[in-house]
Structures are given as structure tokens and as C-alpha cells.
Amino acid sequence: MTDTVVRASGLSKRYGSFTAVDAVDFSLEDGRIYGLLGRNGAGKTTIMQLLTGQIFRSGGQLEVFGHEPAEHADVLRRLCFIAESQRYPDDFTPADALTAAPWFYENWDAGFAQRLVADFRLPLKRRIKKLSRGQLSAVGVIVGLASRAPLTFFDEPYLGLDAVARQIFYDRLLADYAEHPRTIVLSTHLIDEVANLLEHVILIDHGRILLDRDADEVRGSAATVAGPAAAVEEFVADRPVIGRQSLGGLASVTIDGALDRDDRFAAAELGLEIAPVSLQQLIVHLTGHDLTGPTAEEEAA
Ligand SMILES: Nc1ncnc2c1ncn2[C@@H]1O[C@H](COP(=O)(O)OP(=O)(O)OP(=O)(O)O)[C@@H](O)[C@H]1O
């Protein structure tokens, strides 16, 4: 049986009259990689700040390792939160940040950190405020990985990394997690990139949870049927359609719901191809918009 690391029930955060997190219920289990997904302003960072004791809840209940996080040094010691733009003292170098890290993280692996420094080609002696955006991201990623904190949050710190460096991050994360299982929460817009890492998906929209499910279940919960338009339309006639594309006489339609063996046989009879739906496609459908597009507030402005 897995242990529950986080229990949130009716958890809310209000800023004045604005509700950033609206009575959410969820739990995080030990030894899993979670994707905390949602559009800009959905409430992802606010949830992570609540869980790491950086801000106080306005309502509901929250337990992290069995306690209210903000008031327990013992809980805070087991957490690592890496934000997109980490703040460091002005004259700090990456070498200083790595030297200080074991004071905060009892599982700190200095050898692993050194290997990551080489992987990310991080200049150790340059002042952090002089680093490029990607190098600054690398400092956060290295601290987050080498901390081996039992509950680690990566709040999009890897967005500054180039494609090669991001792939290194995903590879090292997966390999190290396999050897040292812990609970990891990734918040990201780059869903397709991280889709294979995620074991569980929590989708937030307007401070509420739209979806809280195993990633495999989510992937299997819809399918795309493609082929001659007339045959596709015949196949999907009585099914819930969540996306449709057509080109000439060909159509590609995404349907909600898993397909069983009979469905697959019927599709083959009609000469249709069935493909799985990507996590990103499904989430775009569920939130009604492209996650990388403008927010509702921006659209209204
Ligand atoms: N200190 C604050 N005061 C007022 N509103 C705030 C404060 N912090 C966050 N908010 C608002 O709460 C909402 C949720 O913000 P949050 O940073 O959690 O979103 P997010 O999902 O992490 O977004 P992004 O993907 O853009 O980082 C936003 O509308 C934001 O403007």
C-alpha cells in the first residue's frame, strides 16, 4: 500500500475578493510523478505555495506528511520547491548554491549534483545574477534533482532550458527517480514533452480541479479515428466527438471514451485507422483552449 503524502480537502486561497484556489480536494501518494497542469493563472503555483507552507490557506484542510506544512520544520525539511526564477543572494555563484544546499536537504547527493553541473555545462564560479536564463534554470533543476527531497516541486523551472538540456533533465529525473523513488510534482505547459514521465495528472482550471486521474487512464479515455470522411462519420455517428479535422475527402475525429474490441473490429471493417490521443490534445479539449494561448483575462483585455 502506498502512503499518502498530501491530503487537501476543501483547500482554498483567496486574495481579497479573488479566489485563486477554490475548495479543491486531492491527495498525493508516495513514489509517484504528478503533472500539475493548467492554463496561465489556473492556480498551479498557488497550490504548490500552499503545499510548501509559503502562503497560508484561506479555507479547508491541508496535511503534508501528516501536518500543517507552514508550522512544522520537520515537514519543511522534506520538501523542495523549485520555481521558474529562483532568488539567490546577490553575490552567490552556482558553487555557493550547491555548497549551501545540504544545509536544507538531508538527502543531498553532492556527486550527483557535480555530474549534473557537467551535463548542463553550468559555469560554477560565475555570479548567479550574470547567468543566462537557461543557466539559471539549470541551477534550479540541479538543486531540485540532487536534493532528493521526499516531496519535490518543479514549478516550470526548466522553461529556460533549451531542447537538449530539457531532454537531459527529463532523462536524469526518470533515471534518478527509478533508483530513489519519491514524490515529484511537475507543473508545465509542455505537456507532450513530459507526458511519458507522468504517472498521474491533476488538471486545474480557474482554481478548480477538472481532472485527477492516472495518466494511463487519461490516455486510454479517448481515441482518434481517421480515414475516408464518409466512413469516419458513419463510425462516430452515435459517439461523443471532442475534436474534428478534415482535409479533402479525409477526416480525423477524436471521440471521448475508450474503444473496445468490437469497436476496433468495426473500424477496421470500414477501413479506418485508430490512434491514441495525446495528453496535450485531451487537456486542450478539457480546458477549451490551447494551454500556451492567452488567458481569459488577456483575451478580455
Ligand atoms: N499575491 C497575489 N495577489 C493577488 N492575486 C494573486 C496573487 N498570487 C496569485 N494571484 C492570482 O491567482 C491566480 C492563480 O495564480 P497562479 O500563479 O497560481 O497561476 P498558475 O497556474 O501558476 O499560472 P502560470 O502557469 O501562469 O504560472 C492568478 O489569477 C493570479 O493572478
Task: Walk me through what this model shows.
The structure is a single chain. The strands form 3 sheets. A 6-stranded mixed β-sheet has the order 5-6-7-3-8-9, with helices on both faces. The protein has helices at residues 44-51, 73-76, 94-104, 110-119, 133-147, 163-179, 191-194, 215-219, 229-236, 261-269, 279-287, 296-300; strands spanning 4-15, 18-29, 33-38, 59-64, 79-82, 151-155, 183-187, 200-205, 208-214, 222-228, 241-247, 250-256, 273-276. Helix 4 (110-119) runs antiparallel to helix 5 (133-147). Residues 290-299 have low confidence and may be disordered. The chain has 2 domains: 4-217, 3-Layer(aba) Sandwich (Rossmann fold); 221-276, 2-Layer Sandwich (Alpha-Beta Plaits). Strand 6 (151-155), helix 6 and strand 7 (183-187) form a beta-alpha-beta unit. It starts with a strand and ends with a helix. By secondary structure, the protein is an alpha/beta fold. It contains 12 helices and 13 strands. Helices cover 35% and strands 29% of the residues. Adenosine-5'-triphosphate binds next to strand 2 and helix 1.
Tell me the number of helical segments per DSSP (H or I, 4 or more residues long).
12
> From the 3D coordinates, which CATH architecture of the largest domain would you assign?
3-Layer(aba) Sandwich
What is the string of helix and strand elements? EEEHEHEHHHEHEHEEHEHEEHEHH
Distance between the termini: 49 Å
Largest sheet: 6 strands, mixed
InterPro entries: AAA+_ATPase, ABC_transporter-like_ATP-bd, ABC_Transporter_VariousFunc, P-loop_NTPase
Keywords: ATP-binding, Nucleotide-binding, Transport
Pfam families: ABC_tran
GO molecular function, one term: ATP binding
